[in-house]
Amino acid sequence: DISEEGHDKVYNMIYQQHDHRHGPWLKILQSAQNVLKGQTNVRILDIGSGPGGVAAMLASNFPNADVTSAHSTQKCVRW
Question: Which residues does 52 contact at the CB level (< 8 Å), separation at least 6?
Fold first, then answer.
């Protein structure tokens, strides 16, 4: 069992590892760009999104898309 403070430290470490130019988020964006190229009426659902970094990145790169972000923990959503 991990304390809330310990959980926050671990989550922050994982978040930082993913949020850099060589992290998996760039691969997600590139995959989405390939799949959605030329598509209209695009809807994107990001499940388990944490504080929503990926959803925000996708929304900024697909301004006409309907992007929804969801996470099971309210604390992550507040971040």
Answer: 46, 69, 71, 77
pLDDT tens for 18-34 read: 666 666 778 888 899 99
By mean pLDDT, which of 8-12, 16-20, 44-48 is the weakest?
16-20
Burial of 17 by CB count in 10 Å (0-12 exposed, 13-18 middle, 19+ buried)? exposed
Between CA 56 and CA 67, with CA 62 as vertex, the angle to 5 degrees is 55
- Global pTM reads 0.66
Tell me which residue of 64, 57, 61 sits closest to 33, measured CA to CA. 61
DSSP per-residue string spanning 45-68: EEET-TTSHHHHHHHHH-TTSEEE
